[in-house]
Specification:
The complex is a heterodimer of chains A (482) and B (385). Chain A has 482 residues and is an alpha+beta fold. Chain A is 37% helix and 18% strand. Chain A folds into 5 domains: 94 residues, Uridine Diphospho-n-acetylenolpyruvylglucosamine Reductase, domain 2, CATH 3.30.43.10; 118 residues, 2-Layer Sandwich (Uridine Diphospho-n-acetylenolpyruvylglucosamine Reductase, domain 3); 107 residues, Alpha-Beta Plaits; 91 residues, Alpha-Beta Plaits; 37 residues, no CATH class. Chain A has 18 helices and 18 strands. In chain A, the strands form 4 sheets. Chain A has a 7-stranded antiparallel beta sheet, with helices on both faces. A 5-stranded antiparallel beta sheet of chain A has the order 5-6-10-8-9. In chain A, strands 1-2-4-3 form a 4-stranded mixed beta sheet, with helices on one face. Chain A is globular. Chain B has 14 helices and 18 strands. In chain B, 58% of the residues are buried. The chains are: A alpha+beta (482), B alpha+beta (385). At the A-B interface, strand 9, helix 8, helix 9, helix 11 and helix 17 of A face strand 8, helix 7, strand 10, helix 9 and strand 18 of B.
Chain lengths: 482, 385
């Protein structure tokens, strides 16, 4: 059923399983090496569940040193390694191959340092995104990047994918909030880059590592920036009868000088499903915006009145400023339950392209046309402030051929994103899901330049080698000298 | 320095680099020439002048994005942004005063050197606002990375790698930046007669409030806290901060004097008129006072604090011969670094301009340069001998 190809496992590696397990057990506590065929199944997929393959072995180190020791074994035995955080990737970033070792960060759970004066926290990377905020929120701080999977996803995966979230319009994504890493190189050496200062000397290796999808090294510790919590936040809900008006509204808000923390967008198919599920009282219209601002009461009131004025000029169907914590919660309830609500009525595939904000109305129109062409429904819910779209393609996974049809539709949408000046992925990463579209956004030299960077960090392409770069493009490198 | 080429298109830049490769000619990449004194000097190089690769190619105020060719003057970009009430939020420093240079600062130079300013510790550096680049590498290949959208994780982030690589990986030809609305109002609280230790105490307390302090600097015994935003926001935040610092009776500064004050801090005008050697030291803010005291115990140095204390600008009499070793020896290991920003040619030849790295990281950096510039013809030795 799958249309995304993975390389054939290396038989010589499969044949050496006993030797590989033995070598790993020598350097790790026995409960850290998982090789029983029933148990390795737990690691067969991540959030891209249509693709599954149990790894040869999974290892779960508790320290950077253990991680380095495991990596050195794999390096010496020439076994590929697929790093894994919490396994929530929607792009298949942690999808194993049968001949790989999964190197998981799940047991790297320590908080190493909290420094409020300098507003930083240093953690092992197996901690979840939300728990970082949890560790500091009683003292009035938070960690800003907030991917929807934040309850489950690990900082290791956030760094690998350069995760974003709803609030990055104001606070930036992971790369803007990451100050330093401890990283295990592909040969097992441990390096530290950056730390408590705002930047590190020399070339910006930290910027390169963040978002490198586990292809340059395995990040075991991270120094993150924390911020003081805002005094308050309040949303306004704005409905329009056309995508164009909503798009114009977004542009006008941004231009006005008000900087909301979030501008979320839902289209009619999405509103309908969400309303049935969450009863948030959304108006059934073509386009719904949720705009949230932060600050003290007086600051919030001023910002919301400016936003309301901008919206009123565009003939909205409805403008509803939240007037209480309950109303705010209700407005957000619909948006936050969108994926779950959709999942109750349908299988869906969640895309992640980004387009210039000015191209949102056109892109939505084009998605509508493609929906008719492919004969599959689509619902749109996304971060409009930064143009990061999440079309949800609805299909029936039990119907033969529908998965492939949905994938083809998704590819067409992502090509459209590139055509209008955008990109294939705004926050989920390339993984295997968008791997084969990379040649649509990048030419040979662009991709060669990126692969040459990997060559420096991982000369024999042991780390997550079948991801990001189309297989035929990376074929020679993956074969490796070993 | 002999002129090698002055291309006006990306294609011509590529041709020039290919030609330089063929002739084994090393190039010094230059546009405005205002930051040429930064880095290890090189002598056997010819000038590749890209100031002719110029012009804003796209500006969408509603999308907060601007694209420009690398040689575009900063002044031209700021004028365009100004017309739409927007700005480069990372406040790129103008190096002319402190480096004693003339010329026209360009966006390519700003990106190549990752030049940022006082807002950097809250809003981010140039690298955080850089959405995409096009560059010509040392073999003449044209490579694009990133794009012009605000969220983009497609492939490896060469955009950040190139930003701050001082032209050693490639010749920038085009950049795309995220811009922000210009604040409606800005104001600063000034605290007179405070030591650097007291200043850092004020910074840590102020920046840990929700009042979005986005400038925190200290010079000549005065600590400064800047707040910006909508009129109501600034009024509210000033009031709230004054309450937090009741006993200290800070004064409020606004208007033109306020703008000049922050331009002066951004450009380290306090050191412009001296003959001193200038260091930029990054560290944890709370480590700054002890660091400064330790340096001053060894020799007569003056200091300016910026970015909440996370940046210490040091002016050291140029006659102090062991200053590099002393300054770097006192930077807390693993939590900071010192860059020589202004120094004599002799000094920049004698000591590394950029803080020495762990051998493995230096090896990676050398490996990356070898990939993009195998013959070492782009700004050779500028970052590492």
């Amino acid at each position: 059923m799958s249309t995304i190809e993975m390389p054939k496992p290396d038989q010589s590696v499969l044949d050496r399983k006993a030797q590989i397990v033995e070598a790993l057990c020598k350097v790790l506590p026995s409960d850290s090496v998982i090789f029983d065929e029933h148990e390795t199944r737990a690691y067969e997929c991540d959030g891209l569940t249509a693709y599954r393959c149990p790894p040869l072995v999974a290892v779960l180190p508790r320290t950077s040193q253990e991680c380095a020791a495991a990596m050195r074994v794999c390096h010496d035995l020439n076994v590929t390694v697929v790093p894994r955080g919490a396994g929530t990737s929607l792009a298949g970033g942690a999808l194993p191959t049968a001949d790989c070792v999964i190197l998981g960060t799940a047991r790297l759970k320590d908080v190493l340092e909290v420094d409020y004066d300098n507003r930083i926290i240093r953690v092992q990377t197996g901690v979840t995104n939300l728990s970082v905020t949890g560790m500091v929120e009683d003292d009035g701080y938070f960690y800003a990047p907030d991917p929807s999977s934040q309850l489950a996803c690990a900082i290791a995966g956030n760094i690998a994918m350069n995760s974003g979230g709803a609030h990055c319009l104001k606070y930036g994504v992971t790369t803007n909030n990451l100050l330093g890493v401890k990283m295990v190189m592909s040969d097992g050496e441990i390096v530290e880059i950056g730390g408590g200062a705002m930047d590190a000397p020399g070339l910006d290796l930290l910027g390169l590592i963040c978002g490198s999808e586990g292809q340059l090294g395995i990040v075991t510790e991270a120094t993150l920036r924390i911020l003081p919590k805002p005094e308050g936040a309040r949303p306004v809900l704005i409905g329009f009868d056309s995508a164009e008006a909503a798009g114009e509204c977004v542009g006008n808000i941004i231009k006005s000088g008000v900087l909301p923390v979030a501008i979320e967008y839902m289209d009619r198919p999405c509103i309908r499903v969400v309303e049935n599920f969450a009863k948030a009282g959304y108006p059934l219209c073509e386009a719904l915006l949720i705009v949230e601002v932060e600050g003290s009461e007086a600051e919030i009131a001023d910002q919301l009145s400016r936003i309301t004025k901008i919206a009123q000029a565009l003939n909205p169907v409805e403008v509803r400023v939240s007037e209480s914590a309950e109303q705010s919660a209700l407005i957000w309830k619909g948006r936050k339950s969108a994926f779950g609500a959709m999942g109750q009525i349908n299988d869906y595939m969640c895309l992640d392209g980004t387009v210039p904000v000015s191209e949102l109305p056109y892109t939505l129109k084009r998605i509508g046309e493609l929906s008719k062409q492919h004969g599959l429904d689509v619902a749109n819910v996304f971060h409009a402030g930064d143009g990061n779209m999440h079309p949800l393609i609805l299909f029936d996974a039990n119907k033969p051929g529908e998965q492939e049809k949905a994938e083809a539709f998704g590819f067409d949408i992502l090509r459209t994103c590139v055509d209008v000046g955008g990109c294939l992925t705004g926050e989920h990463g390339v993984g295997v899901e968008k791997r084969d579209l990379m040649t649509y956004q990048f030419n040979t030299e662009d991709l060669e330049g990126q692969m040459q960077v990997k060559d420096v960090f991982d000369p024999t392409w042991l780390l997550n080698p079948s991801k990001v770069f189309p297989l035929q493009v990376s074929a020679q490198r993956r074969a490796g000298p070993g | 320095m002999t002129a090698f080429a002055a291309p006006t298109t990306e294609m011509a830049v590529s041709d020039a680099v290919r030609a330089a490769n063929a002739q084994h000619t090393a190039l010094r990449i230059i546009a405005g020439g205002t930051r040429g004194g930064i880095g290890r000097p090189s002598f056997d190089v010819e000038r590749l002048d890209i100031s002719g690769v110029t012009g804003i190619t796209r500006y969408e105020p509603g999308a907060l994005t601007l694209e420009a060719k690398a040689g575009t003057p900063i002044a031209e970009i700021e004028a365009a942004l100004d017309a739409e009430n927007q700005m480069l939020a990372f406040e790129p420093m103008d190096h002319r005063a402190v480096m004693g240079t003339q010329g026209t600062p360009t966006i390519g130079g700003v990106v190549a050197c990752n030049v940022s300013g006082p807002r950097r510790f809250i809003s981010g550096a140039c690298r955080d606002f850089l959405l995409g680049v096009r560059f010509v590498d040392g073999q003449g290949r044209v490579i694009k990375n990133g794009g012009r959208v605000m969220k983009n994780v497609t492939g490896l982030d060469l955009t950040k790698l190139v930003c701050g690589s001082f032209g050693t990986l490639g010749v920038l030809t085009q950049v795309a930046l995220k811009v922000l609305p210009r604040p409606e109002r800005s104001a600063t609280l000034q605290f007179q007669d405070v030591t650097e230790a007291e200043a850092v105490g004020i910074f840590c307390k102020a920046v840990s409030t929700p009042f979005e302090v986005n400038g925190a600097a200290w010079q000549n015994g005065t600590a400064m806290l800047r707040v910006e935003g909508l009129d109501t926001q600034v009024s509210y935040r000033l009031g709230a901060l004054q309450k937090r610092f009741q006993g200290a009776h800070p004064s409020v500064l606004e208007g033109e004097a306020h703008r000049d004050l922050w331009t002066g801090i951004r450009d380290i005008c306090a050191f412009a008129q001296t003959e001193d050697t200038i260091w930029k030291v990054s560290l944890r803010p709370t480590a700054a006072p002890a660091f400064i005291a330790a340096v001053q115990a060894r020799f007569n140095a003056s200091a300016v604090l910026d970015q909440g204390g996370g940046v210490v600008w040091l002016a050291v009499p140029s006659a102090v011969s062991d200053q590099a070793a002393v300054v770097r020896g006192l930077v807390p290991a693993g939590n900071g670094h010192a860059t020589l920003i202004r120094g004599s040619t002799d000094l920049r030849l004698a000591v590394p301009v950029f803080h020495p790295q762990h051998p493995r990281l230096a090896q990676i950096a050398a490996g990356l340069r070898a990939q993009f510039d195998p013959n070492g013809i782009l700004n050779p030795g500028l970052m590492a001998a």
